[in-house]
Specification:
single chain, 399 residues, alpha/beta, Alkaline Protease, subunit P, domain 1, 13-stranded mixed sheet, nine-stranded parallel sheet, 4 helices, 23% helix, 27% strand
């Protein structure tokens, strides 16, 4: 008998542990099942908090009527103490943390004082604000006002449609603009500002800057569709293939320079060959040289001087070891090299002409001296002859 009672008692306890509780339901479908359309609250109240308490009121709320869910707490801060009231809960929205607000349809707000106002907007972090539809604000103090805009980092602002601001204190206020880095601004439509202390103020402009400028000193674009860069340490572009790290090829722009420098270190070169400068002069003399413009350019504004790449390649595209350049463009270093070889040949010709001219002058001076000597001898002979004739030693022959 005792065994039967004990067994029945444990069976009853086991059954109760697995019982499903329904609120407003006769047949619950889960361990805890609340009737459809009913708000579920874990906390003091769904409506705000009592002002002056000086603390956060923890709570969790399920607004079944609009699919909104809240978990975390609301403080008695006047600006945010009604953020979780039903009137501020967007359809199918989600908010967690402290003093967050997700009033836009399908919006999400997480963290501390983050607010997702726009449709399908997302605000994460601390004091972030996503107002534009489908916008995203993440980090601290970020704001995404534009339609499909994104603000990430600290104190960034994406103000226009499809704009993106990332980093620290960046602002993308142009349509489809992008501001990345620190203290950058992209205010022109379709503009991009990257790095530090630079501004893309014009349509389609792109600017990149380094960290050499002090805060408050900015470099800004000056024209639409312009590419501008500022790097006080210079620029280096390597074009070497893998395995050539010890002897890279490319170009450099040294600090404070105003023209590109071709990497031309003799220790990085091999297979030297001399050239026939006179032959280069002959080839240059037969090339098509003149003025022209590229197809599609305004003939009155964009004229140029120079050779054709095909002619240049035909004349100088091969040496005894291999190919130099190609027939659709002219490498500036090769162009300069051909010019220097030709100049060197001209210098040698001029030097040879100078030496020949010097020899001719010396010969002329020698001839003049010899002529002067002969002239002086003739004059002396004539004087002697005149003296003899005057003395009568020689009589004149008359007819």
């Amino acid at each position: 008998m005792k065994k039967t009672l004990i067994s029945s008692f444990f069976i009853a306890i086991s059954t109760s542990l697995y019982a499903q509780v329904g609120i407003g339901l006769t047949e619950p479908k889960a361990f805890l099942n609340v009737a459809e359309g009913k708000t579920v609250l874990f906390g003091a109240d769904t409506v705000g908090v009592q002002a002056g308490t000086g603390k956060i009121s923890p709570k969790m709320i399920w607004y079944a009527s609009n699919g909104g869910f809240r978990a975390g707490g609301i403080s008695d801060n006047f600006a945010s103490n009604n953020n979780w009231d039903k009137a501020n809960v967007g359809q199918y929205s989600f908010a967690s943390g402290a003093d967050t607000k997700a009033s836009g349809y399908y919006s999400t707000a997480m963290g501390n004082r983050s607010m997702a106002i726009g449709i399908s907007s997302t605000a994460l972090g601390s004091a972030t604000l996503a107002i534009g539809s489908y916008s995203t604000a993440m980090g601290g103090g970020t704001s995404a006002f534009g339609f499909y805009s994104t603000a990430m980092g600290r104190d960034t602002r994406a103000l226009e449609a499809y704009s993106t601001a990332m980093g620290f204190n960046t602002e993308a206020s142009g349509f489809i603009s992008t501001a990345l880095g620190s203290n950058t601004t992209a205010s022109g439509s379709l503009s991009t500002a990257m790095g530090s202390a630079v501004k893309a103020n014009h349509i389609g402009s792109f600017i990149i800057g380094d960290n050499s400028s002090s805060l408050g000193s900015y470099y800004s674009t000056t024209a639409n569709n312009q590419m501008m860069m500022h790097f006080a340490g210079g620029y280096v572009f390597y074009t070497s293939n893998a395995g050539q790290e010890n002897s890279p090829s490319g170009i450099e722009l040294q600090p404070n320079a105003n023209a590109w420098s071709v990497i031309s270190d003799s220790t990085r070169k091999e297979n030297f060959r001399t050239t026939d400068g006179l032959l280069f002069l002959k080839k240059i003399s037969s090339m098509r040289l003149g003025s022209w413009n590229y197809k599609g350019q305004d003939i009155k504004q964009y004229r140029h001087y120079g050779p054709m790449a095909q002619d240049f390649f035909a004349a100088f595209g091969h040496d005894e070891l291999g190919i130099v350049g190609e027939d659709k463009s002219i490498n500036q270093a090769d162009f300069d090299g051909v010019n220097l070889i030709a100049i060197q040949a001209l210098i040698k010709e001029v030097e040879a002409l100078k030496a020949e001219n010097k020899n001719l002058k010396q010969a002329e001076m020698s001839m003049k001296a010899e002529t002067q000597s002969m002239k002086e001898k003739m004059q002396q002979f004539e004087r002697q002859l005149s003296t003899i004739m005057a003395s009568g030693a020689i009589s004149r022959v008359s007819k």
